Amino acid sequence: EPLAKSGVWRFHELLPFAPPEKVVTIGEGQTPLIQTDGVGDYIGMGRGNLFLEYEGMNPSGSFKDNGMTAAFTHAHTVGARRAACASTGNTSASLALYCCSSKLMQAVIFIGSGKISYGKLSQALDYGALTVQIAGDFDDAMQRVQQVSKQLGIYLVNSVNPFRLEGQKTIMLRVLESLNWEVPDWIVVPGGNLGNSSSFGKAFYELKQLGLIDRVPRLAVINAAGANTLHQLYEKRGLRWNGGQPDQKIIDGYAAELDSGGKRADTIASAIEINRPVNLEKCLRALEWMDGVVREVTDQEILDAKAQVGASGMGCEPASAASVAGAKQLREEGVIDPDARVVCILTGHQLKDPTATVAYHTADQEEFNRVLGSRGVSRAEFANR
Ligand code: F0G
Question: Which atom of ligand 1 is nearest to the CA of 86?
Fold first, then answer.
């Protein structure tokens, strides 16, 4: 029974858009929730209170498979023959994998030149995606793929696609299942294009409406400091969902500043190197439903946190560690209580982006400077042991 083996489709009653016989699954969503005091101590949590949702264990190595199986299934139901995305590397790896496994579609991917780790690029190439490298970054690639897919009638699987978000809701269902349906106090997630955070809000809203839970956790979305649009808008300028009418002047004003300053996203966490998140409004809605907060963390904090995740025996890519670094900051501020139950989402596998890891741990200071020095990152104390 293939649906039962999928951590997404065994919840198909909550994903009613897909006729079971059309579902395209590769066994996604079989991911563990792991309680770890090592990382808990680092953050400053009480014993037994810190959990990591290990989404790197998905078939393509990131949480994207949760959403891709849903969007891909929808693409199949409408008879699409080609599917496209812009990507910082994980969405494209996931799309390419579903295409080559199912042989139902050709993958067309748009990536910013030099803005993707080799681990992720090599997946797309091995899986046979038509790979278009454009001069520019993710934000440019996103704009381009939206134009091109519309012009040529190619099915778009970026998280502007609502079926992606439906699939990603199941990450929260599995977290709850692992906690015997006891609602945690905090969900902490990195924020890039803001698809995950948007889908988590929708998941908890629906579960409450259905009467399956009696309260919702709080949401913390963590930006990299070099790609901090949500933090700027939500925490610094007070932008709120406001019943679906967020203050457009604030949004437009910020976009104009990005345009006129030529400001580009810049962080070691290439997965979330995004300045113009397409799910901004849905994320604002999730922040309202889940009484959310937004924080930004530096590249140094991200790499330090990532090393702690590695030392705990799991490992993750830099963007994922933003969740742990953000939880630490919120714990230090006293926003997160040490007795709270906190779930950090580890969005992508350690082997996705080994360059930063090797540079961080290497004894070769020259190599370290070459890779990371320009970003103002220094080697952490413990790495010298
Ligand atoms: N973590 C990882 C490992 C990611 O790959 C991404 C997004 C995020 C976090 C941010 O998630 O967009 O839902 O806020 N990666 C996209 C990509 C942009 O193209 O693979 P989000």
Answer: 19
Name the closest-CA residue to atom 12, ligand 1: 193
Where are the chain's structural domains?
A: 33-60+162-352, 63-156, 354-384
Mean pLDDT of 229-258: 97
| 51 Rama sector, left if φ>0, alpha if ψ -120 to 50, beta otherwise | beta
For the entire predicted model, the pTM comes to 0.95
* Check whether domain 33-60+162-352 has CATH 2.40.50.1020, yes or no: no
In short, whether 90's Cβ falls inside 6 Å of ligand 1 is: yes
Q: Is the CB of 139 under 6 A from ligand 1?
A: no
pLDDT of residue 382: 36
d(CA 271, CA 331): 25
Point out the ligand 1 atom lying closest to the alpha carbon of residue 352.
Answer: 3
CATH topology of domain 63-156: Rossmann fold (3.40.50)
Cβ(199) to ligand 1 under 6 A?
A: no
Pick the atom of ligand 1 nearest to 283's CA. 14
Where do we find the tokens 């812009």?
A: 86
Cβ–ligand 1 contact at 191 (below 6 Å): yes
Q: What is the pLDDT of residue 260?
A: 93
pLDDT tens-place string over residues 95-146: 999 999 999 999 999 999 989 999 999 999 999 999 999 999 999 999 999 9
Say if residues 95 and 110 touch (Cβ distance below 8 Å): no
Mean pLDDT of the chain: 94
Region for 89 from its dihedrals, namely left if φ exceeds 0, alpha if ψ lies in -120 to 50, beta otherwise = left
DSSP string, 293-321: EEEEE-HHHHHHHHHHHHHTT----HHHH
pLDDT, residue 38, reads: 97
Q: In terms of Cα–Cα distance, which of 323, 290, 293, 287 is closest to 305?
A: 323
Q: Which ipTM value was assigned to this complex?
A: 0.99
Check pLDDT > 60 for residue 381. Answer: no
- CB burial of 126-141 (b: ≥16 within 10 Å; e: otherwise) equals ebebebeebebbbbbb
* Alpha carbon nearest to ligand 1 atom 6, residue: 271
Calculate ∠ Cα 230-236-237, nearest 5°.
85
Distance of CA 113 to the CA centre of its chain: 21
33-60+162-352 against 63-156: fold identical: yes
